[in-house]
Amino acid sequence: MNKKKFSISEITKISILGTISVLLMFIKVPLPFAPTFMEMDIAELPALIGGFAMGPLAGFLIVCIKILLNIVINGTKTFYVGELSNLIVSSAFVLTTAFIYKHNKSKKSALLGLVVGSISMSIVATLSNYFIIFPLYAKLLKIDLNAFVGMVAKINPLVKSYFTLMVFSVLPFNLVKTFVTSLVTSLLYKRISPILKRNGNISE
Questions:
Q1: Can you spell out the DSSP letters for 168-197?
Q2: What residue intervals traverse the membrane (predicted)?
Q3: How many domains does the chain have?
Q4: Which of 169, 193, 189, 159 shows the shortest CA–CA distance to 33?
Q5: Which domain, by its residues, includes 163?
Q6: Do the domain assignments include residue 163?
Q7: Domain CATH number, residue 51
Q8: pTM exceeding the 0.85 threshold for the entire prediction
C-alpha cells in the first residue's frame, strides 16, 4: 500500500497555513440567530486552499494544527468540547471538498466540492451537535439541555425546543459559515495556488 509523503516544502506550507488558520479564528462575527458561544469565522479557508493544492490529508493536517495552536494560545473555555466539535465539522468540510477536487482537478469540480462539502459540514454539524456536542457540554456544565433552548429562544423566536434549536439555529449558522468560506476560497484559490504548488507535489 502506497503512503503519501510530504516534502519539506509541503510541511512548511502546511505549517504556515495552519498558523494563518488559527489567526483567522480571532476574527469572529456573531450571527443574530445563533447562540452567543457560536461565532462565525472563516478559519477553514487555509485548510480548503491547502487541501486543493496538496490533497485531502494536507487539508486535514491544517485543521489539526489550527485546533492545537488555538488550544496552546487560548486554552479552552468549553472543556475541549468546542475543539472536538471544530475538529469534526471542519474535517467534514475540508476532506469532502478536497476529495472531490482530487479526482477531477477542474473549476467545475472545485465548485462542486465546495457545495457538497458545505452540505456535508452542515449536516455533520447539526447531527453531531444534536447527539454529541450539546449533550456532552450540558453534562460537563451540569445543566439541562433546555438551558440552551432558553438562551437561544431569547434572540431567535423560531427556537422553541431542542430540535428547533438545531434546525433554526445550528443548521443555518453552518450554512452561512460554509457559504461565506466557500465564496472567499473560490475568489482566492487561483491567486494563491501557484505559490503552494511550486515544488509541492505529493509523492506516492
A1: IIIHHHHHHHHHHHHHHHHHHHHHHHHHHH
A2: 6-27, 48-73, 79-101, 113-138, 162-189
A3: 1
A4: 169
A5: 8-22+39-192
A6: yes
A7: 1.10.1760.20
A8: yes
